[in-house]
Amino acid sequence: MAETNAEKPAPPPPVIMVPSVRSVSTPAPEKERERSPIPKNNPGTWANTGDYPALALREFREGITAFTVDVSVDGRVTKCAITTSSGHADLDKVTCDNVMARAQFYPGKDKKGVATTGSYSNRVRWQIPEVLTMASMPRIAESLPRPPKPSNTAQLRIPADKYPAAALAEGKQGQTTLMLNVDSAGKILGCSITVSSNSPELDQQACALAREWSFEPALDANGVPSSGKSAHTLSWRLPKSAAAVSMNPPRTRINPFSKPGSIGLTLEIDATGKRTLCETQSEGALFAQIPDKNFLDLVCSGSGNLDVAPFLDSEGKPQAKRIKFRISVEHEDLKTGAASK
Fold first, then answer.
1. pTM of this prediction?
2. What is the distance between the alpha carbons of residues 61 and 83, in angstroms, rounded to a whole number?
């Protein structure tokens, strides 16, 4: 707020805080490892406030758009598809338009480390921004000894829905200084722009809003209400939050127990403790492993001395034994208790 004392100079215009997008650099991927495409530039820059469709802003439409892009061997986005709609065609369309134009990738690689095509999934949250715009108290005392005074300072706070949709969609902000002519009854007779924000939409809206304010009239030297002038600055501030691409794209959910299966190991140990047999068995895919692959094979194929102390019977005499080891995944219906076959 500015001092209303005519003898003090007006303070400098308030500083406009512009929300910034934090840039996160993505390191170059490791070589010789199979992987999907990795973003080369910050996904947070793929969508911003200025991308919000003007009609969607005016109609206060929000939503989350999930998308998947195809990435070529040279890291270019070749195709964008909406996997989950926001419920609004214009929000979905601008999502793919922006990603196609701005996203850059390190290409995917196969098991040999050779660049290959791949896909990448993420989502954009389209949210009507919170706008913090404020008009100052009178900056200049044009009428003495007491200029017109706003009767209610709460009216100087500009609601979010009063921010011009076209200016918001184009990411425009700035300061509009205006002069109000107020009659002896506190009624506003006229509004003129003395310092433009360089945005016609913001300047026009500034006067439109100011004409709705109520004032206490100026007073002359005898304390009689009289006409006067009141100067104000509206600081149009862009939103704190805006449309943005998540830095943590949703991962594909998997079920490691989706298929029943088992792996087993059979060992035969003679009376001296020496291993005479080592066989593995596998059925189905255990814990999402590749079928017909059994990590217990490492036991039988491993090198080194795998002999053990001999087994003893109740009288302490050594004896041969067969050992069976098994891990399995079985499905059972919770309602009936019947096991799946």
1. 0.38
2. 19
